[in-house]
Amino acid sequence: MAGRVETCCRAANIPPRSNRNEPICFSPYLYRVGNLVERFFNKIKQCRQVATRYDKLAANYLAFVQLASIRLWLRINESTP
């Protein structure tokens, strides 16, 4: 995965340890947004069809990912008053 991150011209955003001698560049905002994206993909993968990629055509797979996203969005918004 680190190889993919470098090819996309993105830097890894990992919080530094407290005992590190040289401080590294770290953005709490980017870390928070990245965490939201990871959680979204983990929730989407709860649908078996997305996780195992049954569809052979990319268009069909994308359509199911969109449906799963809508289902997740509806479930989140349904619970808010």
- Mean pLDDT, to the nearest integer, reads 79
Strand-pairing-aware structural class: mainly alpha
* Low-confidence residue ranges: none
Roughly how many Å is the radius of gyration? 17 Å
Approximate helicity band? 55-70%
The largest pleated sheet is described as: none
Please tell me what the overall shape is: elongated
Secondary-structure element order, N to C: HHHH
Number of helical segments with 4 or more residues: 4
In terms of DSSP E residues, the strand content is: under 5%
**How far is the first residue's CA from the last residue's CA?**
39 Å
| Number of E strands | 0
What does this structure look like?
With 81 residues, the protein is mainly alpha-helical. The protein is built from four helices and no strands. Helices cover 62% and strands 0% of the residues.
